[in-house]
């Protein structure tokens, strides 16, 4: 009995110890901030707040920025979280630029790794252009927003405002010295060690972190999120738009093929999905549309390749202009768009040449098909007495064009009248 009681006691003690272990949830963001990354982060926040709640959620971040609407959704999620959220600009060499700077400033705990930087949060219009008045309005709104976030967490609001108004950018040491972040850590383990006993205030009140021997759980994007995360890129959007138009061009060239049209339509929808999430320059979109108008026109107008050349140039320039921002990560690479444009132009020329060749061929149906047909005389044929020839599996009456044609002589049809053909020797 004593052994049984001791075993039960040890088992219960083990369960209490396991149940009492602190839990840290960790996710990594290495992409621009857009609806897919927002969905992933908000899911992680919800997971961290589920019972039994995690003691801490760490967002390892390396981002060049992103969309303001998506950024604001993330910040709302952080502010509503009862579980403390730490944004850790990591690994070394990472950055929290633009939207990333806002999110870092809004976190319950802001940390950076050596060799990282933060800032450059000037707003950019979704269509790539803003007049002076609109620019001032948007900048003032963003300035007030980041200032309020900094003040709410006791951080340097004046410096945070410079991220927006002057596109200011600072290193981790300067950020720590000037009270933009709370601490600098080498890696995740070092961060957790430094946060032991840290007091954090959330909407649930003040909490003291106890992270010694914490169980670290990493969450990754699910398959759907990973797929759509790839789609949200200017280069991918341009490729899908081009493949979509190529599929429609093939369908026009070979009506009834079905598959190219179906694939083309799907690619167009995926391309439009990507473009709606990007800061699009509509002049670039117009040039891309104009390029495909040129490619289509080449099929019907004998331009000797001039329209195709114009289409290639318009497609390259339009794709390069598609996203008009100062952020390098949003630019479409010339190495991607140039081969794509040349391929589209080559296919357009191929289809145009094939259609011109088809139009230049004489019609070969009905009576016209008989003219010039070749056969062999089955009987003697003369101008006065009709003979017989076999043509297209049928026996025809045939008269000679001039003189006697002996049986077995190769002949060619020169005229047709009723059911009688006029032939002459080949």
What does this structure look like?
The strands form four sheets. A six-stranded parallel sheet has the order 8-5-3-2-1-11, with helices on both faces. It has a five-stranded mixed sheet with strand order 12-15-16-14-13, with no helix packed on it. The protein has a three-stranded mixed sheet with strand order 4-6-7. A hairpin with a 2-residue loop joins strand 13 and strand 14. It has three domains: 206 residues, 2-enoyl-CoA Hydratase, Chain A, domain 1 (Alpha-Beta Complex); 120 residues; 56 residues, Nucleic acid-binding proteins (OB fold (Dihydrolipoamide Acetyltransferase, E2P), Beta Barrel). It is elongated, with a radius of gyration of 37 Å. With 426 residues, the protein is of the alpha/beta class.
